[in-house]
Amino acid sequence: LDVSMDTWSYFHTCLVSMWLHRFYIYSAVAFGISLWIVIQFTTTRTKRKVTEPGTEYKLGNGCASPQAQEAHVAGVKIFYGSQTGTAKRFAKALAEAVTSLNLPVEVINMGDCDPEDGLAEETSSRNICVFLVATYTDGQPPESAAWFCKWLEEAASDFRVGKGFLQGLRYAVFGLGNSAYVDHYNTVGRRMDRWLWMLSASRIMTRAEGDCNVAQSKHGSIEADFEAWKAKFLTRLQVLCKGEKKPCSGKCKKGKCKSSGKQSKESSDHEHGTSEHENTEAEELSETSSEEEAGSTESVIDVEDLGNIMGHMKKAKVLLLEGYGMVSHSGYHLVYFVCQFLQAKLNCLMVYVLFSGYKLIGSHSGVKLCRWTKSMLRGRGGCYKHTFYGIESHRCMEATPSLACANKCVFCWRHHTNPVGTEWRWKMDQPEVILQEALEKHQNMIRQFRGVAGVKAARLEEALAVKHCALSLVGEPIMYPHINRFVRLLHQQGISTFLVTNAQFPEEIRRLEPVTQLYVSVDASTKESLRRIDRPLFKDFWQRFLDSLKALAEKQQRTVYRLTLVKAWNVDELKAYADLISLGKPDFIEVKGVTYCGESSASSLTMANVPWHGEVVSFVQELARLLPEYGIACEHEHSNCLLMAHSKVSLPG
Predict the structure, then answer these.
(1) CA 59 to chain centre
(2) What does pTM read for this prediction?
(3) Between 589 and which of 386, 535, 597, 644 could a Cys-Cys bridge form, CB atoms 3.0 to 4.6 Å apart?
(4) Stretch 135-162: mean pLDDT
(5) Vertex 344, ends 339 and 350: CA angle to 5°?
(6) Where does the Flavodoxin-like domain start and stop, copy by copy (predicted)?
(7) Which of 103, 74, 231 shows the shortest CA–CA distance to 168?
(8) CATH code at 551?
(9) CB-CB neighbours of 313 under 10 Å
(10) What is the mean pLDDT of residues 106-112?
């Protein structure tokens, strides 16, 4: 009996202890189940990747799908960048060899080619593009290839340019260099190869390098290196002309396709020399590591990509829930909770990283509190719109119905964190929803200042009633297909509107119903300077720019030119600016010095490019002499901005 009592006492003590510590036990069990689910999910995904039918048709890094590989070759285009003439000579020799195969061939100097137009056309032309480029002093490209290489570099590093921009383009690269210059040996060829690959172009063969240093040249001279590569290229070209037989396994890494199955002799030649390729890849990785690391710390997700990312999250969630039907009822809810938690965390992370300080609305709109709004809430001064037009900054809402833009301006004060595009590609939110959420989010941001030291209670209450909307937050608001309805809704609520457009959508300007004040950004006065400063996406950007100014002249409402002066870039074009002003005949001209917003990988601007206020004043005075019908009306020194008004406009005071 004593033994039984002792046993019962022991079990009773254990049960009581377990009950008292039940929280820790539940946590341990939950952690174990979660860990098991993650392991099973990872294992299942790995198996699916190996066994899932059709994976061989996926696009790998730098490898085209069988459909693209089986396409016959329409011709060959040879692009060369040469300083001493060697690359040009090689290009002509290669052209003669290709001609012997009865294929059309074209030899193009990179200096005579617009890369954005020229390369984009090749994504669907079925041509093979060959790039013969030399490395010149200090690892720089030849002068004739400088712009070509600069454009490729910017396109590859600019996240707003789609990574599939050159998908469908098939290419091969032969670099010319001298290994005596160890630090810069063939850097241009290597970088060009990498940039093309980053834009989803497909290598047809491994990059080759010619060496002027006969002591180190693989074949004894750069000419022999070229001849050896040319023979391989022609063999590869013949295989492509007949139709590629080798499927891509989808396991490509930087152009190395490790496909299983039988390969033709030509394919074997293509894969020959793997160790040499691995060495060059290692060099490439070491060259790009610092750039990629720098980019990773400031990585930003495009608004247009959020839908795809969340779609993948939902698929993963469905896979989890379907794949573990054997989990108990409580386990099922645990899995669902984990998925919801991960999805919520991802949402928060994306929104935080993408637009710090912005409030996103729907899928393509945004609102943000301006620093001048905060200033006026404290009883301090307002922005230049308050000085020029009487707009109360604390009652102004800065918003946009389109985060996307058709330009990549060097002075973009949003550091290029918005998507770009030339047409509307997003799921469209209704204007009523956008306006309601914009007002709510704006008011919520205002309410957060309640009780903050220095904020005046009367100003805060006034700020809750929005009286003005600046449609200039970021992007191109005129791209929004329902912009007229959105503007009408604002006006119906007694909210005035200042809308800014970047002069790339002339037809949309013509169709736009009257706003309180319509702005056009005139960032340069010549085609070349506009290309350098605004970096527009449209190929016919200059004609669109001029047509937009003409469309502005036709508007029967108040119009404004907004000039942004960038020192050493566009401050010496007075006469050309005067001609453009005569074209659009605006009521007002706002001339503002560029605002330096800090370092950006997408821009080379520094504080040296910011003009002093005195320099802006001098520019406006000179411009006024060329435009007798305009006069200086006002200035806002804090914003480094001056206002010119047409004589037909009557301003108070």
Answers:
(1) 21
(2) 0.51
(3) 644
(4) 83
(5) 125
(6) 76-234
(7) 74
(8) 3.20.20.70
(9) 15
(10) 91
Residue 50 within any structural domain of the chain: no
| 179 residue type, one letter | S
Which amino acid, residue 9?
S
Q: How many domains does the chain have?
A: 2
Output phi, psi for 501, to 5 deg. -125, 155
- Label residue 150 by pLDDT band (50, 70, 90): confident
C-alpha distances (whole Å) from 46 to each of 52, 312, 388 are 10, 16, 63
pLDDT of residue 138: 80
From 211, 242, 273, the end of a domain falls on: 242
In angstroms, rounded to a whole number, what is the distance separating the alpha carbons of residues 524 and 573? Answer: 8
Counting DSSP H helices and E strands in the chain, the numbers are 22, 16
pLDDT at 406: 81
Give dist(CA 424, CA 406) in Å, integer.
11
State whether 232 and 351 are in the same domain.
no
Tokens of 265: 């002799």
What strands lie across the sheet with 517-521, from one edge to the other?
359-361, 365-368, 396-400, 468-471, 496-501, 517-521, 559-565, 588-593, 641-646, 630-636
Q: Which two tokens stand for residue 121?
A: 């056309």
Query: Is 334 among the domain residues?
Result: no
**pLDDT in the model for residue 408:** 77
Domain boundary among 178, 208, 242: 242
Q: Is the pLDDT of residue 236 over 80?
A: yes
Say yes or no: 496 and 625 in one domain. yes
For residue 258, give every residue at least 6 positions away whose Cβ sits within 8 Å of its Cβ, in sequence order, or none: 249, 251, 252
Say if 273 falls within a structural domain: no
Q: Tell me, what DSSP letter sits at residue 455? A: -
**Pairing of β 127-134 and β 105-109:** unpaired
Q: Does residue 617 share a domain with residue 477?
A: yes
Taking the C-alpha atoms of residue 447 and residue 422, their distance in angstroms, rounded to an integer, is 37
Pair (628, 513) in one structural domain: yes
**Which letter does DSSP use for residue 138 in this model?**
G
Residue 224, domain CATH: 3.40.50.360
Domain encompassing residue 205: 75-242
Domain membership of residue 318 (yes or no) is no
At 650 the pLDDT is 67
| C-alpha span between 409 and 566 (Å, rounded) | 11
In a shared domain, residues 217 and 358: no
Query: DSSP character for 400?
Result: E
For 168, the token pair is 């469908």
In angstroms, the CA 557 to CA 563 distance is 20
